[in-house]
Amino acid sequence: MATSSPWVSANLAILNAYISGDVDASTTTAKLAKPIEEAYSTADHGVALYNEEMAARNQRTQWSPEEALEKWGPEQDVPKPGPEVASLPSTEGQLWGLWYAVLHTAKRIPWTDDAQQNKLLDLVKTLKARPDPPPPSSMTIPLKRNWIWESGKLWSNLSMLGPSARESWNDACGYGSGWTDTEQQAWTNVNAFVARLTASETADFDNYAVWALSDALEEEIQHSSLHHDASGPTQLSLLLTVASVWIQIAGKHLYERHLGEEESGQGDFEVDLAARGTLPWTRSSFSNARWNFWRRRFAQEAQNQDLSEEVRELAAKSVEIIDGFIR
């Protein structure tokens, strides 16, 4: 995750002041949101309007006049912005900067610090509740096709949070990051925060839960010379910790949200605990058979003497939690 961007750095300073209690949520939200809203409602001060029209002119030549008009609208006389305007931060760039800063802040808050993690969650909720700014007054068909303006929403759908999180997940230990204690803690912390976003229904990251549980309980440990490597027990310890965090924070929510979504041909059968890789459910499944498999795998790892007592206890607690809601 790039934190050297001036947009990210500025947002980090604002978020640090909020987390430390120096400013309240309302003030913080206004500082973060207003520059983005100004760019959004002016189509990046006219830059996006111009760029999309230039792209549309090329596209119109590929279609019949009737099709070009339907798909791209009539040609618009959009003035080319001057260099002083073209250099202003874009809506998209500022949204990347906002969400990267939020996720980076989450990495620095211990996953067990409920108060601080929830404080950051409350800020995201406040942003989501903020009224969407008006679209550009000169909205055109080409601009409407741009993914920033396509939905007509900015805050109510937390625009760009999903793509930002997906890019941030490239920083997982073993890929964009190594295996130091600090990096492992950061990865656990940000997973906890995204789990809180999910459990509170602020955002939908159910698939991230599946990735965490599948990586820890269904897949073989991967060793690769292409990325940062670590011993099997080190990798498994982190994977189990992250999976357990998801169960503690969002397990019951995920189970209840997907209750009844059984896949065809699946029942309450048991899968061999030694099975890895190809298993009888789709990647996104939350079937009862899969929950049962996850529970049994947590129980198995709770007895794994190659793991620390702390990780074994997390696995055992996950079993207790699943037992508390599975039907």
User: What does the radius of gyration come to?
Assistant: 23 Å
- Figure out the total of helices: 14
User: Residue share in helices?
Assistant: 55-70%
Q: Give the low-confidence spans.
A: none
Number of strands: 0
Oligomer: single chain
| Helix-strand sequence | HHHHHHHHHHHHHH
InterPro entries: OpdG (IPR022085), Oxopyrrolidines_Biosynth-assoc (IPR053204)
Tags for this model:
327 residues, mainly alpha, 2 domains, 0% strand
Give your account of this protein's structure.
- By secondary structure, the protein is mainly alpha-helical.
- It has helices at residues 6-19, 25-41, 47-60, 65-72, 83-86, 91-107, 114-129, 141-144, 161-168, 181-199, 206-217, 232-257, 288-301, 309-325.
- It has two domains: 1-171, no CATH class; 173-327, no CATH class.
Question: What is this structure, in a nutshell?
Answer:
It is built from 14 helices and no strands.
